[in-house]
Amino acid sequence: MGGGGSSTRRVTFEADENENITVVKGVRLSDSVIDRMKEPSSPSGRPHSQHRSASGAVNDEELKKRIAEELALERARRDSEAQKRRLFGKLLEQERISSNEHLTRAILRERAATEEERQKAQRFAKQLEEKDRELKKHDAYYKEQLARLEERSAQFYKVTTEQYQKAADEVSARFK
């Protein structure tokens, strides 16, 4: 019954409708073990393998048939599970590929949006620098105009003050 592998096997026990035979699923038995199991034990505890009746041969055939059926069912179940695993693996692979494509598209969209934002920021920075230069030009122009007006105002003040002084001197000279 022993195998060289250390893998875990699932074994199930079922009783047939007569409850005379226990069906063990998942265990491989040699023909000699099956024969020993089928024969009744003698009072001394040794099986009688030499004397078989016709009904024993029928039971052997039925038992072999049942074992073959069980093995076929077990193989079919394993094949079905393997097919399910393959299908599930394919579905997982398709989902992974789809997710990767979706992620790649999202990353490309984000990169494009980031590049667009960077270019927009550069344009705004250039516009801001241009406005700053223009404001500095206006500031210099207005300061120049203010200085010219102040100089003119000073000249007018000086002329006006001189004229006033002259007029005041004339008035004073006339009434003296």
Sum this structure up briefly.
This protein has helices at residues 31-38, 54-174; strands at 12-15, 22-25. It is mainly α and 176 residues long.
Write the layout of secondary structure elements.
Layout: E1 12-15, E2 22-25, H1 31-38, H2 54-174
Antiparallel strand pairs: 1-2
Structure description:
The radius of gyration is 56 Å and the shape is rod-shaped. A hairpin with a 6-residue loop joins strand 1 and strand 2. The chain has 2 helices and 2 strands. It is 73% helix and 5% strand. The longest helix has 121 residues. It starts with 11 loop residues before the first strand and ends with a helix. By secondary structure, it is mainly alpha-helical. The chain has a two-stranded antiparallel sheet with strand order 1-2. It is found in: Mitochondrion inner membrane. InterPro entries: MIC19/MIC25, MICOS_subunit_Mic19. Pfam families: MIC19_MIC25. Keywords: Disulfide bond, Lipoprotein, Membrane, Mitochondrion, Mitochondrion inner membrane, Myristate.
The chain-level mean pLDDT equals 82
Query: Which descriptor suits the 3D outline?
Result: rod-shaped
User: What is the ordering of alpha helices and beta strands?
Assistant: EEHH
From the N-terminal CA to the C-terminal CA, the straight-line distance is 154 Å
Q: Main sheet?
A: 2 strands, antiparallel
Cα radius of gyration in angstroms: 56 Å
Secondary structure class reads: mainly alpha
DSSP, total strands = 2
- Helicity, as a percent range: over 70%
Determine the oligomeric state from the structure. Answer: single chain
Low-confidence stretches: 42-53
Q: What percent strand? A: under 5%
If strands are numbered along the chain, what order do they take across the biggest sheet?
Answer: 1-2
DSSP helix count? 2
InterPro entries: MIC19/MIC25, MICOS_subunit_Mic19
Protein name: MICOS complex subunit MIC19
Membrane topology: Lipid-anchor
Pfam families: MIC19_MIC25
